[in-house]
Inverse folding.
C-alpha cells in the first residue's frame, strides 16, 4: 500500500514539473520596469543623481569664486615675501662685505671694536645725508658685530624714526630702552611716539621716566604739563609747569602755560603772580588782556 502511494506522489510531481517548466523562461523574461513600484524607484534614483550632479556643478562654481580672491591674496603674499627675502639677502650681502672690509686672519678685541665704531660712523654719516637705506644697512651690520651695541640700535631706531617707519622705530626704541634703561632720550622718544598715537597716558608715563632719569631739562616738564592738561589733570599739570619755570623763570612760553594752568586749577594767587612775571618779561604779549579778565573772574 505504501509503495502505491509513493508511486502516485512521484507521478503527480512529474506532471506539475511538465506543466510549469516551460513557463519558467517566460516568468524570468517579465520586465520588472513595468511594475509601478520599480518605475517609481528608478525615477527617484534618476532625479537624485541629476540633483547631485547639479549641486556638484554649483558647488564647483561657488568654490572657484571663493578661491579667486585667495589666489590673488596668495600672489600678493608671495610677492611681499620675495621682496622681504630680497631685502634680507641684500642686507646680508652688505654685512658680509662690511665684515670682509675689516677682516684679517686673526682679529683682536680692540680691532673688533674699531670695526664696530667704523660701521656705526658710516651709518651716522648716511643718516645725516638722508640715505636711509644705507644707514639701515650699516647699523644692522654693526649689530651683527655686536648684538648689544646701544649706539647701533640707537642709530637704527633714529633711522626708522626719520624715515617715517613708526612701527619699526617704536619696536627698536623699546628694545633699546631694555638694553639701556637709564637713557632719558629714548624714554622721550617713546613718549613722543605714544603721544603721536594719542596714547596720552602712556606718553605721560614715558615722560615721567625721562624726568626721573634727568630732571635738568625744562622742555620735558613743559611737555608733561601739556599732557596732563590733555587728560584734564590741571593740578598735576601745575606741578609740572612749575618745575619748568623753576629751571627757566623768564621763559614767556612757560609763564604763559603756567597762568593757563593756574586758572584751570583754580589757583588765583599763582595766576596773579605768574601774570605779573609774564607782563614784565613780555609786555607785548597779546594774551595779557585775556588772562587779566579771566583772573578777575576767579
Amino acid at each position: 500500500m505504501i509503495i502505491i502511494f509513493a508511486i502516485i506522489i512521484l507521478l503527480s510531481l512529474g506532471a506539475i514539473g511538465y506543466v510549469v517548466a516551460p513557463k519558467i523562461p517566460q516568468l524570468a523574461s517579465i520586465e520588472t520596469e513595468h511594475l509601478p513600484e520599480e518605475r517609481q524607484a528608478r525615477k527617484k534614483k534618476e532625479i537624485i543623481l541629476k540633483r547631485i550632479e547639479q549641486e556638484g556643478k554649483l558647488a564647483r562654481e561657488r568654490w572657484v569664486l571663493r578661491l579667486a580672491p585667495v589666489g590673488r591674496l596668495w600672489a600678493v603674499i608671495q610677492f611681499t615675501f620675495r621682496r622681504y627675502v630680497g631685502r634680507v639677502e641684500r642686507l646680508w650681502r652688505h654685512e658680509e662685505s662690511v665684515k670682509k672690509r675689516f677682516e684679517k686672519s686673526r682679529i683682536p678685541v680692540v680691532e673688533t671694536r674699531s670695526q664696530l665704531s667704523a660701521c656705526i660712523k658710516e651709518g651716522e654719516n648716511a643718516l645725516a645725508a638722508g640715505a636711509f637705506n644705507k644707514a639701515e644697512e650699516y647699523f644692522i651690520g654693526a649689530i651683527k658685530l655686536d648684538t648689544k651695541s646701544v649706539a647701533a640700535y640707537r642709530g637704527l631706531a633714529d633711522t626708522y624714526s626719520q624715515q617715517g617707519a613708526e612701527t619699526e622705530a617704536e619696536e627698536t626704541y623699546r628694545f633699546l630702552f631694555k638694553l639701556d634703561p637709564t637713557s632719558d632720550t629714548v624714554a622721550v622718544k617713546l613718549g613722543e611716539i605714544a603721544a603721536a598715537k594719542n596714547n596720552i597716558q602712556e606718553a605721560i608715563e614715558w615722560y615721567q621716566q625721562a624726568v626721573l632719569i634727568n630732571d635738568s631739562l625744562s622742555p620735558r616738564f613743559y611737555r608733561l604739563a601739556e599732557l596732563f592738561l590733555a587728560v584734564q589733570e590741571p593740578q598735576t599739570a601745575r606741578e609740572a609747569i612749575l618745575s619748568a619755570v623753576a629751571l627757566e623763570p623768564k621763559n614767556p612760553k612757560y609763564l604763559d602755560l603756567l597762568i593757563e594752568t593756574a586758572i584751570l586749577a583754580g589757583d588765583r594767587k599763582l595766576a596773579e603772580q605768574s601774570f605779573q612775571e609774564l607782563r614784565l618779561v613780555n609786555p607785548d604779549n597779546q594774551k595779557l588782556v585775556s588772562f587779566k579778565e579771566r583772573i578777575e573772574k576767579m
About this structure: The CA atoms of residues 192 and 200 lie 10 Å apart. The radius of gyration is 45 Å. Residues 76-172 form a domain with the Serine Threonine Protein Phosphatase 5, Tetratricopeptide repeat fold (CATH 1.25.40). DSSP finds 14 helices and no strands in the chain.
